[in-house]
Amino acid sequence: MNFKQQLNKYVDFINYWLEKILPLESPVWGCVCDAMRYSLTSGGKRLRPILTLAVCDMFGGKLEDAVCFACAVEYIHVGSLIHDDLPCMDDDDLRRGKPSCHVKYDEATAVLAGDGFFLSAFEILTLAKNFGLDDAKILKACKFLSKMSSFRGMVGGQDMDMLLEKNGADWKKVEMMSQYKTSSLIQAACCLGAIAAGADENEIETVNKYALALGLAFQTRDDILDVVGGAAVY
Under a CB-based contact definition with an 8 Å cutoff, are residues 14 and 46 in contact? Predict the structure, then answer.
């Protein structure tokens, strides 16, 4: 199987389970689930959950071992994009060539949809029990994903980004912001794949260092594309 075939296999697998793992149906009246479904199926490249599956695969695990962890990572990512696009943040009307969530629906619904993704991600992590993962792996995954998504990770990086826009920045500050805003969730994606496969602490730390560098390279490329033009890789 060549690289493109393997990539397509991962994409098909994660897209199937994103539809199945947690049905986006609410027992109460409202449109937040519609907004979540709209954002989840709007054509993302699934880079982060692909990394979760690929790392699990690399350590000899089955894709099913990592499916809940991969879906949870994508939920955090999609929720973050919804919030990033809000007028109070980056104020983007388009996401992947389609109206952003707050444009398609409204700002309040977009806030709730993002919140729904963040909180549901941790429900999905617990569903890994149904795929044979033990409590220790699930707890470790919960701890790592919450840290990398919080003020010690992605949220902190977004805060830094807004401050740098107001106050200006040198390269050192930009690098730190990129580490928190972008690398954190890529680190979570890769390390959760290693955890799912039963990698030891030294192996997880090695994966973490790799993912940090990958995230910085990813953000640097995206920043260059912002200036010279080209398709974003989110």
Answer: yes
Residue 166 DSSP class: H
Q: Give the model confidence (pLDDT) of 172-211 as tens digits.
A: 888 898 889 999 999 999 999 999 999 999 999 999 999 9
| Element (DSSP H or E) covering residue 98 | strand 98-99
Domain positions in the chain are: 3-127+135-228
Could you read off the pLDDT of 74-96 as tens digits, one per residue?
999 999 999 999 999 988 999 98
pTM: 0.93
Please name the residues in contact with 21: beta carbons below 8 A apart, sequence gap of 6 or more: 67, 68, 71, 124, 127
Domain spanning 3-127+135-228, CATH architecture: Orthogonal Bundle (1.10)
